[in-house]
Design goal:
Oligomer: single chain
Number of domains: 1
Strand content: under 5%
Helix content: over 70%
Shape: rod-shaped
Order of helices and strands: HHHHHHHHHH
Radius of gyration: 27 Å
Structural class: mainly alpha
Number of helices: 10
Length: 275
């Protein structure tokens, strides 16, 4: 029985419809612009206080500032990844419950097999979280239908499965919310870094194309812009990919726990009802 697979993952549009998500995105774009202008672009980071000149030797802020207008976009994407990662970490940790998920599942299976439904429900109340909520719903339906012999066994089994599936469908979107944003940023960051690289190389070739001796300052500035944007884009994308894979693996663990517990409940009910 694959219950969790019936849930629908939120799309990017669904995530962006959330007012809180949009506020976070807008605020972080503003923060990124302010950081670029007043922190990275602070005159103290440059020779003679001139932001058009070379940054002071070893000053990373001034060096990053030379990346140009793509830099605040990449900073905002990095801030979004960090913010939504923290939000997902908290949400998934709460959804996992207070104890070890696999230990909880083993305990529930043992209690169901021994017929201690009330104790199993009490364990769900202690555990809390998404897995416990789904298991608790299945156990309540199990307890209710085990006393109702007027309904055919197959129909009762179907009702238990349906209750588990419906509860799963309510829990899964909460676990997957905003993950699509992290996945999207993983792709966008690389593209924005590439765009910054292209713009930097255009400046470099423009410096080489001048009559007479090439403009060495403009050439160096263009190369710096290209490399800085490449580094920021690849770095942000790598972080987003790692976090996305980490969170999806955590969600898969919860999904497998739900499936295992649901299968155990249904199998035990089937065995008891057909005796």
């Amino acid at each position: 029985m694959k219950t969790a697979s019936k849930s629908t993952a939120p799309t990017l549009g669904d995530s962006l419809k959330s007012s809180s998500t949009m506020i976070i995105i807008i605020v972080e774009i503003i923060i990124a612009v302010l950081v670029y202008k007043f922190v990275l672009g602070n005159p103290d980071n440059f020779v003679d206080g001139n932001t058009d000149a070379h940054p002071i030797d070893g000053n990373m802020f001034g060096t990053i500032y030379q990346g140009g207008l793509i830099v605040p976009i990449l900073i905002s994407l990095l801030l979004m990844v960090v913010t939504f990662a923290i939000e997902r970490l908290i949400t998934i940790s709460v959804a996992s419950g207070k104890g070890n998920t696999q230990g909880f599942i083993r305990k529930i299976k043992g209690l169901v097999e021994s017929g201690n439904l009330d104790q199993a429900i009490a364990e769900c109340d202690k555990q809390k979280g998404s897995v416990a909520n789904v298991v608790k719903a299945g156990l309540h339906k199990y307890s209710e239908l085990s006393k109702n012999t007027s309904i055919e066994v197959d129909k009762r089994i179907g009702l238990i499965q349906k209750d588990i599936e419906e509860t799963t469908q309510l829990e899964m979107p909460m676990l997957q919310k905003n993950l699509v944003i992290i996945a999207t940023i993983a792709s966008i960051a690389t593209l924005m870094g590439l765009l910054g690289t292209v713009l930097g190389m255009i400046k470099s070739f423009s410096a080489l194309a001048t009559a007479g001796a090439p403009d060495s300052i403009k050439l160096a500035s263009g190369i710096s812009e290209a490399l800085i944007n490449t580094a920021l884009g690849i770095g942000t994308s790598a972080i987003a990919i790692i976090l996305y894979n980490f969170f999806t693996s955590r969600i898969d663990e919860l999904t497998y726990g739900i499936d295992e517990a649901g299968f155990s409940i249904v199998q035990n009910f089937t065995a008891q009802a057909k005796v």
